[in-house]
Every structure is written in C-alpha cells, then in structure tokens.
Design brief:
It is a single chain. By secondary structure, the protein is of the alpha/beta class. The protein folds into 4 domains: 5-279, Aldolase class I (TIM Barrel, Alpha-Beta Barrel), CATH 3.20.20; 295-323, no CATH class; 327-385; 389-504, Alpha-isopropylmalate synthase LeuA, regulatory domain (Double Stranded RNA Binding Domain, 2-Layer Sandwich), CATH 3.30.160. Helices cover 40% and strands 20% of the residues. The protein has 17 helices and 18 strands. The strands form 5 sheets. The chain has an 8-stranded parallel β-barrel with strand order 2-3-4-5-6-7-8-9, surrounded by 7 helices. A 3-stranded antiparallel β-sheet has the order 13-14-15. The chain is globular and about 75 Å long. The structure holds zinc ion.
Length: 511
C-alpha cells in the first residue's frame, strides 16, 4: 500500500472563525486558542487580517511572538498597504506565511472590482511578487474560485505560481460547490496548470449547503494537500469546514483517502470546548465528533452492543479526541498546582488572579468534591474576563429572591451605581426575569438583553452554572458577558451586571 500523503491543516478559527456573526474574542483568548492549536499540531494558524483593524494587527503580531512550531499566517488583499501591514505584524514570526487574496469570478470582477481578466492577472502577479520580498512562504487565494471560469482559473494559478506563490488555495467562498464537482475542479487544476507541482493545492470550503467537509475531503481525494478549517466549523455565515470532522474523517478512513494529518487528536475536545466558551457560540448537541451526544447511545440494543464490543456501534473512541472528564484538582490543591495547570492551559495570569482562582476552586471542591478541567477553564475565564474594579460602574451588593409555585417571583437587588447605593425591586415570570427587571429599574441608561444562555458545566445539581448573555447599549454596540456560580440565579445576576458594566464603560470593550 502506498504511504499515506500528509495533509496540512490550516486553521482559520482566529480569522474567518472570528468573523462569525455573534462571535468576539478578546486578545488574551486569541493567544490562548493559538497556543492550543499549536499544541494540537496544526500546521498553519491564520491569526487575523491586520489591515482590517488594530485588534487584528495586534493578534497577528502577538501570536507571531508566541508560536514557534506552527506557521503563522495573516490575510491581505493583493494591495501594497495590506501586505505592508501584514508583513509588519508577521515580523516576529518564526515561520511566517503571507496569504493574499484576490477575487477572480466574473461576478466579483465585474461588480466588485470592476477589472478585466487581464487586469486581474496583473494584480495577482504583482501582489505575489510584492509579498515575496518579505517572505518566501506565500499563499494565493483566488476568491470565489469555484464560480470562476476554469480556463481563467488555470491561467491565474499558473501566473501566480510563476510569480512565487508556494500554496494556491481554492476557496468555495459562497459554499456553492457540490462534492463530485469540486473534486473534478481539483483534478482539472492538476491536469491543466503546467507548474502546479511547484505549489501545494489548498481548499477553503464554506458550509452554506452543509457540504464544507464533504467538499474538502473530495478535494483531498483528488490531490489537494492542504485543507482550511475552523474549530467547531465556525466562520462567515454557516461557517467553514469543521477541523474536528476533517481530522476524524482522515483518521478513521485514512486508508480510503490514503492520507493523514499531523494532528495531535487528543486536544480536539478541549479546544472545541474552549472555542465554544470564548466565542459564546455553543456546539449543537448532535454535532459530529464534538457534540455532547456524539458518543451517547440511547437505544437499549446499541447500549448492549457497545458494552459487549465498543466497535459494534462506535467507529471512533471518544478517548482519542480527549473526551473524558479529567480530575485535575481537589480541595487540597494549593496555589502552585493551580498555577501549573493554568500555565499548561496557556493562561498568563497575574498573581492576584491566580489567588482568586485558587480560592474559588477550593470553595467548589468543598461543595462538589471533584473539580474537572472544564470547571477550571470556566472559573479562569470568569476571573480573567472581569473588568478592572475601578472601571466598574455597577457593583452588586445583595440579591433577595422570593419565589415559589404559588407566588409571583419577586426580586430585590441592592447595587452601588457610580458609588451611590440604590435598591431595585420587581416581579417577573421567574426569579431570573424578576432580578433582571429589578436591575433594569434602577439603571437609567438603556441596555437591552439580546440573548441568554445557561449551561451546567459538570453534572449534578451542585454543578457550576455558566450563564452567557449578550447585551446591546444605546449606540447599538453588542457585548458578551459571562458569569459562573453554583447558583443559577446568582450566575444570571452576575452575568447581567457584567453585561451592564461592559455596555456602560466608555471605552467600549474593556479588558
Ligand atoms: Zn472563508
């Protein structure tokens, strides 16, 4: 049997993924995710689009400083100012990659760029040549490739490879391609682009028709050597190809594809949970590989089968993706143990934050006996997400709830707003609603609650409750806020107050 080909994994969670509607990542969260992607052995980490914002620039620059093993890429259009900015951000990178993009399909050429095919080729070639003075590792993406005339696409690829592109990425930008068709496109490129062996063929598939992973795998089968993907499949609109699904398809059916990846699969579940918690984009229960139900058997026949022989109904072992609750700390664990676990997870924390996390872990261990990795991540996120005390305009003093099955729930909330003590009271359909209304009754600025999500972190009625909310201030800016507590009502109240503080803080998004 032929030796399996190595397929490079290009992760764009921090670039395309962060463009998901509703997702926002703080600077520190991006660095933590990047470190975990490196630990997972991702070949290339796309860290941002530096010309788009100062935040993206800083993310690419700081991830470039931190990451040593994986290549670090950033995105630029084929114009000098984009490439200059990207090259500057990539300066500290040990293995930099410049990724330039230019739309090639008729609809983009005529309506967006207003350029002729000849001009498009000149722009692509000029962009690649300009980029190659900064680094030799250059990826070129003809945006909307799957809707570009094939003859023109071949010509664009030939000329940009000649100009120095070492990877040519074929994006199905709008998620329009069908698997067999997309596979044929890759074969066509291999047959018709004379210098194609000088570059790696990559694909970047979107999931508008639910085919991102299928299209990517079909491309691999036809000779693509790199796939672009995002953790949990997040990304523009319906998202990108899901990293975990591609990884496990190539692992489980390696001989069918005659291909494999370099990934350290045991990091998959942890990174999935982390991306979900940081972005606020929850993973659907029945999601392949990383969903809560992915390895749950309900039917008695299936349960019996799995007990006799796991492989009877399971094609993958959940252990392989690191899906097992790990007991890491107990109530006797000291600050040093906590610190080393946090460090191993990629958190760079101040001493007072470590102390707060330690005391909260001890308090939790007292109640719930066992503390799992997920609990620690939740507590650490809660502590690091907190604003500086002096920036908080609202401080919670006390909450009282009156509730039951025969009374209308009522809440009384004591707050300090800009240093002044106030008390709000309200009734609601439930205790959380009553508390939210009581808080709103004493705050004059208009902040609306757009979303409310509640999740238990680890089992049992004494488990930590994680509440993630989204609020919108009067200028229309949205903020994600989160809180965890063993008490559902307290987690909700704290999340709401965190949300108000973020929405009312003058700088927008404080960290
Ligand atoms: Zn995309």
């Amino acid at each position: 049997m032929a030796k399996p080909r190595k397929i490079k994994i290009f992760d764009t969670t921090l670039r395309d993924g962060e463009q998901s509607p509703g997702a926002t990542l703080s600077h520190q969260e991006k660095i933590i995710i990047a470190k975990h992607l490196e630990k997972m052995n991702v070949d290339i980490i796309e860290a941002g689009f530096p010309i788009a914002s100062e935040d993206d620039f800083k993310a690419v620059r700081d991830i470039s400083k931190e990451i040593k093993k994986s290549e670090v890429a950033g995105l630029a259009r084929v114009v000098e100012k984009d490439i200059d900015r990207l090259a500057k951000a990539l300066e500290p990178a040990k293995k930099p990659r410049i990724h330039v993009v230019l739309a090639t399909s008729p609809i983009h050429r005529e309506f967006k760029l207003k350029k002729s095919p000849k001009e498009i080729i000149q722009m692509g070639v000029a962009g690649v040549k300009y980029a190659s003075q900064f680094c030799k590792n250059i990826e070129f993406s003809p945006e909307d490739a799957s809707r570009t005339e094939t003859a023109f696409l071949y010509e664009v690829l030939e000329k940009t490879i000649e100009a120095g592109a070492t990877t040519v990425n074929i994006p199905d930008t709008v998620g329009y391609a069908q698997p067999a068709e997309f596979g044929n496109l890759i074969s066509g490129i291999i047959e018709n682009v004379p210098n194609i062996e000088q570059a790696t063929i990559s694909v970047h598939c979107h999931n508008d028709l639910g085919l991102a992973v299928s299209n990517s795998l079909e491309a691999v089968r036809h000779g693509a050597g790199q796939v672009e993907c995002a953790v949990n499949g997040i990304g523009e609109r319906a998202g990108n190809a899901a990293l975990e699904e591609l990884a496990m398809a190539l692992k489980t059916r390696s001989s069918y594809y005659s291909a494999e990846t370099n990934l350290n699969l045991s990091e998959i579940y942890r990174v999935s949970q982390m991306v979900s918690s940081f972005t606020g984009l929850l993973v659907q229960r029945n999601k392949a590989v990383v969903g809560e139900n992915a390895f749950a058997h309900e039917s008695g026949i299936h349960q019996h089968g799995v007990l006799c022989k796991r492989e009877a109904y399971e094609i993958m072992d959940p252990k392989m993706i690191g899906k097992e609750s790990e007991l890491v700390l107990g109530k006797h664990s000291g600050k040093h143990a906590v610190k080393s676990v946090l460090k191993e997870m990629g958190y760079g924390l101040k001493e007072n934050q470590v102390e707060e996390i330690t005391s909260r872990i001890k308090a939790l261990a007292d109640k719930q006996k066992r503390v799992f990795r997920e609990d620690i991540v939740a507590i650490a996120n809660d502590v690091t997400d907190q604003m500086r005390e002096e920036d908080k305009r609202i401080v919670l003093e006390e909450v009282k709830i009156f509730t039951g099955n025969r009374v209308q729930p009522e809440a009384e909330v004591s707050l300090k707003i800009d240093g002044k003590q106030v008390v709000g009271k309200a009734k609601g359909v439930g205790p959380v609603d009553a508390s939210a209304k009581a808080i709103a009754s004493v705050i004059s600025e208009k902040v609306s609650l757009k979303e409310y999500n509640l999740k238990a972190i680890t089992g049992g009625t004494d488990a930590l409750a994680n509440v993630v909310i989204k609020v919108k201030n009067s200028r229309g800016k949205e903020f994600l806020a989160e809180a965890i507590n063993e008490d559902v009502i307290m987690a909700s109240v704290e999340a709401i107050i965190n949300g108000y503080n973020k929405a009312l803080f003058k700088e927008g998004k404080p960290k």
